[in-house]
User: What shape does this take?
Amino acid sequence: AQKITQTQPGMFVQEKEAVTLDCTYDTSDQSYGLFWYKQPSSGEMIFLIYQGSYDEQNATEGRYSLNFQKARKSANLVISASQLGDSAMYFCAMREGFTGSARQLTFGSGTQLTVLP
Amino acid sequence: GAGVSQSPRYKVAKRGQDVALRCDPISGHVSLFWYQQALGQGPEFLTYFQNEAQLDKSGLPSDRFFAERPEGSVSTLKIQRTQQEDSAVYLCASSENRVQPQHFGDGTRLSIL
Assistant: This one.
């Protein structure tokens, strides 16, 4: 089974509008972290926002917020007031567990966001 | 610079050649990761270092792949006898510790002819 599922291969949004990018995850760990990264066409992965599984409040970073619904195992990214520079591929990722040595991220397949002028 | 630096940015090699990809992490970052990203896909984990110790290499696809970080800073990913399926972007990431978010470099785009 996929650990991270992003069901929207592509999304379009009008400039200055808000957009929600979907992410669902699958884990049996009680402790885990959820991340969103932005990857422009230049290729760099840019960290946007983090949500810990024990965090009671949804994470926010500027125009980015994470709609965390633990019971539904979803961690959707909301971008408010979209800008042309937001056009990029967006990846949801998960890090499982706080014990053991491995700390790798498991990524979804991504959503290509295009902001229209 | 302040970010993760990877070189070369692009690498073209003939099938069968050996290649070496370099990663210079953010200064002081203990954890270093290598990922492989195929076209149109999300990155996939290859290997993890904590300082100079390679603690997890479960993602390396074959024994042709080898990574090292001898002094706990710069890391090199080496691929021997390259195959066409090795063509991908190789991303390096570092973090302060096991909990902090990972910061990625621009990647090395490897093309095997």
Remarks:
- Chain A is about 0% helix and 50% strand.
- Chain A touches chain B through 24 residues (CB under 8 Å).
- The mean pLDDT of chain A is 92.
